[in-house]
Amino acid sequence: MAESVPPADALQRLLDGNKRFEAGNYLRPHQSPARRIEVADTQHPLATILGCSDSRVPPELIFDQGLGDLFVVRVAGHVADEAVVASLAYAVEHLDTRLIVVLGHRNCGAVQAAVEGNASSHLARLVQGIRPAIQKVKLQPTSMLDMAVRAHVNLTVHALRLAEPILARHVQSGRLDIVGAYYD
Q1: The pTM is what?
Q2: Distance, CA of 10 to CA of 5 (rounded, Å)
Q3: Peptide bond into 6 cis (omega under 30)
Q4: Per-residue pLDDT tens for 52-63?
């Protein structure tokens, strides 16, 4: 099995990739036919990303990564329900990823629905997971949506660090780091 990437190294690789993305200097690593063959039977991602399903925020592109580099869990509003936490725990426990990035973004529609309080029956499940962030920033004098997205990222990071048994154990041992990020 390939060695896992230490959290600080994985984070630096993501930050470097994002700088390349911002500058338009893409490496587009690990996208060759040879790489497809290499990862066909096994994967050793350097990080796990919990992000929104928004089509404008593809983690592999904004971090300039390729096939097999990221284990990505996407759900509208990056809501960490039981299935999402189980997916993250799988990446940590079985794929040996040592960094989870909770990725929020500007103009998140799910957070907007929570801010406005108008959610259909299906969206209501997502909004329920976002409401604590809305309450936290309700009296802030700045953009409610932007502050709510950022608060939701921070609350999600905090909750994941405490998620028993797998994530919390790995965070406490120093083997796993969970950080927040914001895409604008």
Answers
A1: 0.90
A2: 6
A3: no
A4: 999 999 999 999
